[in-house]
């Protein structure tokens, strides 16, 4: 741990306010974000069977012990472990890549000696990841990156299985930081790897235990917000270990955005409104990967889709894909559904909502909850009526209603579920990034933010092909030579990226 | 009421058992069916806010009165009327055709003098229909055609509005017939029109009050089962009033099957299993309208779809639409999802389920609950595990699980919702059929089963076009003459039908 | 041949003018029609290698003999026989159903004793049909139904093979009737079956050799126009033999219209204009099967498609399929391509063409050449410029050009080709219809126009399934009983029809 | 012109053989390539009306003069100028971006003083580009980059318009280099910009007139091959002026590959074989942009499509898009059509062709003519039969035929046409690259190969939006600040690239 690094952290602490501010430029959406904004977002988990009616004692005040007498955890209720175990087993079936990694790990343990501290959503899928890391040789301590998203029964199963988990559904903000602290501030154990989702864990260590970075080999960060924070640190010369940005790997991006949203836009709209898509006029704001997914799905269901864009290249793509490119004001009076996918702010403002027709559905699939100016609807002349969970009717004085979903937060997180397969992509990417950073020869990675090497990105993809009974073709020696490629990849240059976000 | 008709009923009563037997040939699916089989099917209503925890007193034992002192109804709880009214108002917004009929009825009352007894699902959409019939001049008395499907709050709103409604959610079979009886067996009021869904009401009158048919101008029947019963009666020479089969109108068929199922297959699968469609291998049994809808939707979501068919014409269509036509045993080991849409029985039998792969999802979108041989799974060596509402894991001794949805009942009724717009098509068709039969000049309709006249079918469609801001082109006089058509339709011959079921 | 029949023909002759008038109501399009209108339509045959530059002597003036000395034919040039034979062999590979029929015929000859006189397009595909009929036991004499469509080399191969063929490319109208006459007016041979396409052959026999009908067992007619004439005859009580309308069989309809046009609209537009479809705004007039095919194809290529309709049921389907339903005048200024598929007349009139934008492409996929009012463009102020075969620029005084394809005739016949597979469906239908009529027990068919029995329609489809390696599922005895069906079909009622035309 | 640069060229000349060798690694396909390989490829030009039967005198031996007495050109026939002018005018209508550039150039002349020597296909679209460059202030001299692709009438129109054009259809290789030399080796005129397509012009100057580079401000190169040569030069330290790689701009890539091939695969197959796509089984080798376009189009037409891939990321995309990922040998026996889009060599080898079924169509949409091992079919036991232009039947001893298109060369160049709109994208990109290089401040570009700046790429796209009546949304100041973007772009980082090739 260099002096420079130490000094930089002092400055860093001074600049904490800036650190917590909204990112000023974020070009991609994420499924997660930091406490400052979204660690408190509600996050629906379809598979959560947690009974909210159980006892009110704070987990922090309970004596807890698993069946083997281990007490190094803090969760809601250890008795839910069996139920959580089944959830984990079900998730395992849709996370073939991690299971394959476990199998390969029977011979060698690439994470032997790794002490990983993690801060992510705690769900059945995360449990599969943690148990895989463990099978690969790592020790893990874990906290939740969101105060609402923990599946208590899964946390119980993990605790029962011997993991030091500190998380429950409905933490206070104080609980949140307490849990993180319990993960890192422990006698006789010091992490050498960080797996973060939102940057709060990294931030806490920077702030409280900067010396810990001496032993840390690297950070793996999964969220837009967290990655942004890391780039800020790097730019400011304050990043003192290598960091891997797994958010921007090609495979993960495609699944988080195009493939996931193609399905979740339909799911989210149906679950909340039971709307029929056929014949509906829809405007989709933004034709990045998320917008492309939404447009393709709705077109396939018989909707008439209009697109708005600011980038002429994406705009031209929308044209070639058969969507009329309009300005929002040209169609706002006639559309039945408005969907934002821009990553921008104030895309749908009050002026537009004033002109929408009765019954118009308004929702957000984009990066953050700023795309629809929901605040502008909180005025005395408008009446809000909650008609279902996540569905509000906002009623104008003349009786016109618009149907606002999830109060402008992300529809696919609030009103739909993220398929396990998508989470499998993410978790596998995280696991490989940890392995890469942990095993990289000295000097390969500097104190900077890196993208997952192309070859590992390809490896994530290849581990998921068996799910589809998909058979990859191998290059012959002659072909590999002709193309100037190694037979095992990488098959594309590092700069190769997925399509427009 | 002819002697012949009376006599026929005697025979009819003798053949009751046969009457209650499963139809021996049914070529189209329906959203409803009779008590003998499906009046007891569970029917999910997403908009139902009925609190199942309220008091246990049977509605039949309660004193009930609406705010105007009227007591001629029997429902769960009149206090829910306000809530039900809002549900009705929301439904009105998506039933533009009925609202348009109401408006046109301000001048003339085509149902003036009509006394309609109805037996249908009692939902917000039915309420819009009933209030439209009333606005057109009719008096109505109503019972439920299914013991589970009544929205209690809507029944309350109807009772508060002065309708004689006899229905609640969770009727016993005895309640079911009691409610129907209360609709028809009333001092000083005798129905002259029947609106039935499943044939139970018609059956009851035939059995108990055959004399009532003297005054009845016609029956409008909406279900496959009910229509089948009517054709049986007609064939046996026992139908003593004209009946209109509204189930088979072109517009209704397209919406009930193709358009509705195209959306509900995705919705039903997502809500129950959160499965990701992309890359999944799916086999769809049957390529009628329902199968076509399912295939189109899944293909659009990136699934690889196989089709089985018995009819070479439908089979060839599947080929031309890009689906591999297979026998079930050719793909049963490899598919991730099996969907039945045949109207047939024992399409997916135990032998196939024994060979499915671990995690395979099995569900039914077809006519009845016979397509999957669920009974064959109720054997000692298999374990059933209910993992969510409507989702069972059936577990083989070797640990293999298949995921059975809705216990083989209709997925789209059990695990999805029928969009109001689809119900609007049905309700409008029913209203026009009632008007047609009630106003038809003597002799136009004999004691037979009729399809809705082409022109009225077209009228149903035209009343729904404004929803889409769709503008119909009118024929010029010259063009009409050239085509040999009336400018106002019908535009197709009566025999013209929708595509393969 | 009854007296009544004879008398009726006298009246018939008097009404000849009416007979030759345009049909007043035609609800479906066809690939062929009568001399009065379309026997003179140009018909592109991609596979035609006929050298138009060869000798100018009329075939009628030539001495012709095949290698076996047979001279009972009249064609362009017997020397082209080898070339024609190869064309036929290639066609055989894509007409598996006829080849399968030939194989089955090795045991029995269902057409033994049949003497068939035919009048159809004479192409390689027709040759496969004729040789199949011959293999099934029939004797054939054949003329062309269109003065341009004969493939001379195929006619040569047929003549060389012993068929009495009377046809060449570029017949005069006098030649046309002379050829037909040579087919029927022959010493010692009298037809007992008629295979017609357009009704000209039937008309000729009615007019010239009414006595011939005494021995004729039936007429098989393939075209809209011909079928219309037969219905007129039947209505007037003048049809004196059974006739089979093969134009309206379900399988044929689907292929002629939906499946064929889905491909040929793209092909026809590309070959003539090289237009890029992506992003283009297109209006399709008419949403019958042809319109549905055009819309689906263009939507898939990234065009933005608008639809016009007069029938509210088809209109509603367009909405549900995701097309904006407009009146032509709403979009005429903005569209890049206008396609007519209505079967109507004067759908695109001068007023609309005056308002089209520069470069707008106008073409017709509908029934006849009346849909675009091409005559209205033949005015002095407009300049016509032929830029390619089948492509005219019509230039307004201000320099605006519209691109008119095939002078408003059928684009898919003029500028594209009909795939052999589609022709195979038609030819197989014709063959089965001939077999059915020839073998039907006395009395099954009266002097009326019949549709091909459902079961034979299904048989046509089933004969084509092996092409796609498609495997049909067979009903079990139990299932057949449950459905009330014969295990071998028919699987749908006779009234069952394909979707909207 | 530095001494270093001069010296490097000496070495360069020595390495000429290497220079002419096939590129060893090419990851993207192009529409053009060098004389060594593809300057001699046949290139179909649908709009070419050149009469191949006219006089046989070499243009080099003719006295030629345009109507103004100018003789500084060498073409086929100056009399065809009027006809060529009309072709150019028609092309202008589909090249709105260049026309817009001309308009903007009325005020300023960004190419004033530019002396551009060009070597490209000489077509109507190139003429629009040349006349635009001229309108922007440049002087141009031009040769053809392919010995077959020149539209003689267009060359005539250019010569008549005063351009020094040296090109005709059917040049010998000696003619080819002579024409290039005439462009550069001219008294009193020295080029300061190069626009090349394939690198032959650049190569010629390097070889013959290295001193010329002293005055040259930059090279704009359009082809894969030419770009590859430039990168080789750069790597070897021998590139002595800045070069702009316009082949890899995002907009151009999308159009050349995804959008263009989506349409041309259908067009190319139809024009050559009239195959019906519905129900056909197709295997597409390679799921880059070209493969994606082919797969999407064929799927939309009802084909059943299989995909082979070597790259797991592209493979996973194929799965998610609904295509079965196979190895070629798994499906080779059953498919009806095989399409290569890999950029690789020997993808379809004799062993596979031996196992194809009768009638299987084989074609190549990929980078070069190496993907299908056509040489392996030139063996004595196989018979080749040319059935149409670009269509060969290769016949096995047992009679099996495969249908080989364009002898394995690029189907879309040989058997289809490239839409003017796609060429407009390319030409606009070229024009902007010339402007950028010509006007760049000293030092912005070094002696290296550059991609077109993101902002100019976006500008190319924006110039094409009006064609689609597409309306771009502008960022508000507040939004631009939020996103950290300039309101006028660039909207994406420079590293942002289009999807997989």
TrEMBL record, chains A, B, C, D:
It holds the Pfam family AdoHcyase. It comes from the Eukaryota. It catalyses: S-adenosyl-L-homocysteine + H2O = L-homocysteine + adenosine. NAD(+) binds at residues 288-293, 309, 412. Its cofactor is NAD(+). Substrate binds at residues 123, 197, 222, 252, 256. GO terms for biological process: one-carbon metabolic process; S-adenosylmethionine cycle. Gene3D superfamilies: Adenosylhomocysteinase-like, NAD(P)-binding Rossmann-like Domain. Belongs to the adenosylhomocysteinase family. This is Adenosylhomocysteinase. It comes from Sinocyclocheilus rhinocerous.
């Amino acid at each position: 741990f260099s002096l420079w690094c130490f000094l930089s952290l002092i400055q860093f602490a001074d600049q904490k306010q800036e650190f917590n501010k909204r990112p000023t430029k974020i070009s991609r959406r994420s499924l997660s974000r930091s406490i400052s904004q979204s660690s408190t977002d509600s996050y629906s988990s379809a598979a959560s069977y947690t009974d909210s009616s159980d006892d009110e004692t704070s987990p922090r005040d309970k004596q807890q012990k698993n069946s083997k007498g281990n007490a190094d955890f803090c969760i809601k209720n250890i008795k839910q472990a069996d139920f959580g175990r089944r959830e984990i087993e079900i998730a395992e079936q849709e996370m073939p890549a991690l299971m394959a990694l476990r199998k390969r790990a029977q011979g060698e343990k690439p994470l032997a000696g790794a002490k990983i501290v993690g801060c992510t959503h705690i769900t059945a899928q995360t449990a599969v990841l943690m148990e895989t890391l463990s099978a690969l040789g790592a020790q893990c301590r874990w906290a939740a990156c969101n105060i609402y998203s923990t599946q208590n029964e899964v946390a119980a199963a993990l605790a029962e299985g011997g993991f030091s988990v500190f998380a429950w559904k409905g933490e206070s903000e104080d609980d949140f930081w307490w849990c993180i602290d319990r993960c890192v501030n422990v006698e006789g154990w010091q992490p050498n790897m960080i797996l973060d989702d939102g940057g709060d864990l990294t931030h806490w260590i920077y702030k409280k235990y900067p010396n810990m970075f001496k032993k840390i080999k690297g950070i793996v960060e999964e969220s837009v917000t967290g990655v942004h924070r890391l780039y800020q640190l790097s730019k400011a010369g304050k990043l003192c270990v290598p960091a891997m940005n797994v958010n921007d790997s090609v495979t993960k991006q495609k699944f988080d955005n195009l493939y996931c949203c193609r399905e979740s836009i339909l799911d989210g709209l149906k679950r909340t409104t039971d709307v029929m898509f056929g014949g509906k006029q829809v405007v989709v704001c933004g034709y990045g990967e998320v917008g492309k997914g939404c447009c393709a799905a709705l077109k396939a269901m018989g909707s008439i889709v209009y697109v708005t864009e600011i980038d002429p290249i994406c705009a031209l793509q929308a044209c070639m894909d058969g969507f009329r490119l309009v300005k929002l004001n040209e169609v706002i009076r006639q559309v039945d559904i408005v969907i934002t996918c821009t990553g921008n702010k104030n895309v749908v403002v009050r002026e537009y909502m004033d002109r929408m027709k009765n019954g118009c559905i308004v929702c957000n699939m984009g990066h953050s909850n700023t795309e629809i100016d929901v605040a502008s609807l909180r005025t005395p002349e408008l009446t809000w009526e909650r008609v279902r969970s996540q569905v509000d009717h906002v009623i104008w004085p003349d009786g016109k209603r618009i149907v606002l979903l999830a109060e402008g937060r992300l529809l696919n997180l609030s009103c739909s579920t993220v398929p396990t397969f998508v989470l499998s992509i993410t978790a596998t990417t995280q696991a490989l990034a940890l392995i890469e950073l942990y095993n990289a020869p000295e000097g390969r990675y500097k104190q900077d933010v890196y993208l997952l090497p192309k070859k590992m990105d390809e490896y994530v993809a290849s581990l998921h092909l068996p799910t589809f009974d998909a058979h990859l073709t191998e290059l012959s020696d002659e072909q590999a030579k002709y193309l100037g490629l190694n037979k095992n990849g990488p098959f594309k240059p590092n700069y190769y990226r997925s399509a427009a976000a």
